[in-house]
Amino acid sequence: MTDKNNLSPVERIKTSSNGLRGTLKESLLDDFTGAIREDDQTLIKFHGMYQQDDRDRREERVAKKLEWLYSYMIRLRLPGGFLTSEQWAGLHEIAENHSTGVIKITTRQTIQLHGILKSHVKPTIQSFNLRHLDSIAACGDVNRNVTCTSNPSESPLHQEAYELAGKISEMCLPKTKSYYDLWIDDELVVDRKAEEDPLYQDRYLPRKLKIGIAVPPNNDVDVFINDIALIAVIEDHKIVGYNIAAGGGLGATHGNDATYARLASLLGFVDTEEKVLKAVYEIITVQRDFGNRSDRKLSRLKYTIDKLGIDGYRTEVEKRCGFSFEPAREFKFEQRKDRYGWVQNHEGKWFYTLFVEHGRVLDTDEYPLKSGLLKIAETGKVNFRFTCNQNLILSDISENDKAEIEALLKESGISTYTDEASALRKNSVACVALNTCSLALAEAQRYLPSLVTKIEPVLEKYGLQNEDITIRMTGCPNGCGRSPNAEIGFVGTAYGKYNLHIGGDRLGTRLNTKFKENVGEEEIIETLDQLFGIYSQQRNAEETFGDFSYRYLQTAK
């Protein structure tokens, strides 16, 4: 537990915030700046927002003696990543009216909009509310969006996991009503007892917390990168419980060896939904009470587990739960990728997974993706599901409606784009990075597409173009694009420079290793050319590039 005399400044902001209200109301009324007050920049995260600025225009603004061009990113809370067609159409309209117009599908199965000016923040939230959507706790030192396996299956198990994600999300919502006070103009809560929060208290968590649910054999959610990982145990075609792991997290800091990426460690097996919810709750309370509140770089649950030891953490959780974990049950992951194209589920409904490069839904002269999806939504005959690989599943389509949706997919070029994208491109992930992320040291989503274009002919040169190699890029070492557990990972160090990591496995159960530091594009291509050449000659039967790279690194030691 952290010494109360050695708390980080953020801890004071939280405890003195009057239920996360702070002076946000006053900040929003200040027309003399596009920014909000410094303490409020922390509090607004708990409402699902970040203050950002257009970093491409900083020099221009400074030269004109203007403040930075501040704007806000708003992220929705969508446990399990689901929208109706009506909600998607509403989202399209909101994006057009209040943001840059780009709809961003995130690596946590939700949506965020960028470039929202301060005067548009409240109207945006109110527009979401009219569509029964909110951004509560989508950011901040709380449980974030709960992810779960989105790929359709020939069984009802994925629906069961989706429903559990919703229950966990509801259980972990902050009790304060400040979101409605500030953004929806509800009456101010006078009785503070109604806002007493047994989970978060007035301190909230030391740092953000992420939860993911996987249904084997697919690990499309990258379950082990979460603070809390739930892996469904299936026997006789039924979910009989969940293996629970804890302590995942990919963020680190350049030059700080005390920080590191880590995959979650198994705590054990829990057999009923009631026990699963209780275990999740108490894993969170242990982190609340034992997590580091002095140094935010060391505040994630992974550091708490490594401080207490996995056995010590498990013992404390079991004491609070009133029951013990059983030994972890056997499970097996066979893939991590999305299943593109048409798939039919056990009820005869059709699902179409389309490739959305780095989750950016927008229109270009060559590819009217956003307009095409609006036309599909306007039929009212589909639902929209998001994947942790930043893609989109058009779901729950009846047999009678499939031909109509298929025609619209062809008309807009969506099915052609999905079919023609290379295996490498379809397995690529990138974070937002520049120009809006304040932490970015290098490009990611604006650069990786062109880099992939230059890597593709190198793969073809060695006959590897059909290999499903995972390639991921983050503009800084915080890991939002999940590059530390890719087969090929790029971590930004400076503009145009990246650390190159290799050796992660294809299933998301092994982290990669830094291979080269501060490399630019030319050296990246040269290095991958050499590695692909060796791989094509020396790989074992069915050996993935990640497994080969890991073996190659071990041999080179």
State which percent range the strand residues make up.
Answer: 15-25%
Major pleated sheet: 5 strands, antiparallel
The fold-level CATH name of the largest domain is Sulfite Reductase Hemoprotein, domain 1
Write down how many β-strands occur, each being a DSSP E stretch of 2 or more residues: 20
Q: Which residues sit in consecutive blocks of at least 5 with pLDDT less than 50?
A: none
The portion of residues assigned to helices is 25-40%
Count the DSSP helices: 18
Q: What is the global morphology?
A: globular
Structural class computed from helices and strand pairing? alpha+beta
For the record, the CATH architecture of the largest domain stands as: 2-Layer Sandwich
The value of Rg in angstroms is 23 Å
GO cellular component, one term: sulfite reductase complex (NADPH)
EC number: 1.8.1.2
Pfam family, one: NIR_SIR
Pathway: Sulfur metabolism; hydrogen sulfide biosynthesis; hydrogen sulfide from sulfite (NADPH route): step 1/1
Question: Please, could you describe this protein's structure?
Answer:
This protein is an alpha+beta fold and 557 residues long. It has 3 domains: 202 residues, Sulfite Reductase Hemoprotein, domain 1 (2-Layer Sandwich); 168 residues, Sulfite Reductase Hemoprotein,Domain 2 (Sulfite Reductase Hemoprotein, domain 2, Alpha-Beta Complex); 132 residues, 2-Layer Sandwich (Sulfite Reductase Hemoprotein, domain 1), CATH 3.30.413.10. Strands 1-2-5-4-13 form a 5-stranded antiparallel β-sheet. A 5-stranded antiparallel β-sheet has the order 3-14-15-12-11. It has a 5-stranded mixed β-sheet with strand order 6-7-8-9-10.
